[in-house]
Amino acid sequence: MGDAVGEGIFDDWHEECGVFGVWHHRNAAVVTNYALYALQHRGQESAGIAVVDGAHMRHHRGMGLVSEVFSADDIAALPGHAAAGHVRYSTTGSSTLANAQPQIFAFRQGNLAIAHNGNLINAEQLHSELEQQGSIFQSTSDTEVVAHLIARAGSADFIESVRTSMSSIQGGYAMVLLTNERLIALRDPNGLRPMALGQLDGAFVVASETCAFDTIGATFVRDIEPGELLVIDDAGLRSERFASPQRKALCTFEYIYFARPDSDIDGINVHMLRKQLGRVLARSCPAEADLVIGVPDSSISAAMGYAEESGIPYEIGLIKNRYIGRTFIQPSQQQRQSGVALKFNAVRKVMEGKRVVLVDDSIVRGTTSARLVSLVRSAGATAVHMRISSPPVTHPCFYGIDTSDRTKLIAAQLSVPGIQQLIGADTLGYLTEEQLLSAFGVTDMQHHSFCNACFTGRYPTALYQSMEKDMLEKTRKLVLR
Ligand code: SF4
Fold it and tell me: Helices 270-284 and 300-310 meet at what angle, rounded to 10?
C-alpha cells in the first residue's frame, strides 16, 4: 500500500497492524523507523518503537503516521542494539495512545515490549479470568492480555512462560516480543497473519511483510512457520514450536487487498497474484468494453491482469490525491464522505464516450462502489461494468481485520443483482471461491492452506461467543474514563 493498499474500499475495511523486530544491529532504531515507513499501509493510527541496549529499555510511541510520530531527535533518543516496532490500526481496543504499541511491561524478569498484529478471539474470556485472579489492566488492547499471561505463567524460564501463555490464546496473530536478553517472533498455529525472517548486516530482522526488508536492504531468509516461535539472541537464532501445526489458513485478503504489491507472502508475490485474479476475472466475467481501469492503488494489478487477458486496453482513469489523510481514520461518516470526493478524480478525456470496466478488489458496504461508479459516469463513461477480484464478502473477520458486522456487509443482505442496482453499475461480476483459489493454484477445494472465511463463513478456528470489535472497550469503558 504505502498508500498502495486498498483505497478502493477504504471506508469499509480497516487494515490490521504491521510489526517489525531487529536484534544485534548498531542502528536498531533507525532501521526500525525505515521499516515502519514500509509497513505504514498496515496501520496509520499510531506508531511506536521500543529499544534495548543491554541494560535499559526505552520507547517512543505516538498517534499518527510514522513521519508524524518520529523526529530525528526521537530516533536519536533511542540508542540500542535491538528494537521492536509497530504501526497500528485498532482491531480490538480503541484508538488511543494507551493502546499504541509496542506496549511495555515491567515484571519480575525485567522489561517486556510486545508488538502484535492480529486478533485474539478469546481475549474477552482470558481478560475476565485474569481480572478475577487479580490482574489490573491499563489499556483495552488484547496485547495486554498476552503480557499478563506471560507474567503469571510462573516459570523461571521466560521462553517456557511464553510457550505456556501462547497455548491458551486463540486467533490469528503475528507477534514480536523484546526483552533485554532476546527478541522473540511468533506466528499463530494457522498462519493466518504473515511474518517473515530476514538478515541485515549480520543481524536478524523479522517483519509482517517482505517490503520492509527491501526498504532497509535486508535479505529475505524465509517465512516464519505457523505455530513457530523464533528466539533470537546473542547466541544466534533458534526455532521452537509453541503449538502443533493446525490446518494452515493464510488470509487470502492479505493478497487481495492488504499487503503491498512488492511483498512476497509465503512465496507468492502480491502483485503477481492480483494480476492472476484479474486474468481469472476476465475469463469468468467478460464485458463488452473499450477500456479497463482499476481503483487506485490496490486494484491496479488486478485491472492490468483483466486487460491483458481480455485484450481490452488498460487505462489510468481514476487519479488518487495522495496528499490527504486516509479518510477512514476520520471518525464521522460525514467526514468520510467528503474525504471520498477529495480522494479520487476521474480523467474525463480518458472516459468520455467509453464503455468502462471498473475493477475493484472487493465490496463491503457498497457506499464507496456507488460513489466510484457515479464518478466514472459523470466523467462521461457510457457504461460502467464493475468487476470485483474476490468473491462477495458475506461474513465478518475475527482475525485482525476490522470488518463490519454482518448487517452492514452488503453481500450478506443483497444478491449480486441487488448490489449491482444499489451501486448503479450496468453489470457486476465477482469471482467465486473456486476461481479465487484457482489463482493460487489450488485444485482441491477441501484441502488448501488459505482462509476464505469472510467469503464462506467457514472459519479455520473455533469461535467464541463475544468476538465483537471493541468488546473489551465496551465492557471496560467506565473504568477507563
Ligand atoms: S476472514 Fe477474511 S479477512 Fe479474515 S483472515 Fe480470513 S480471509 Fe482474511
Answer: 50
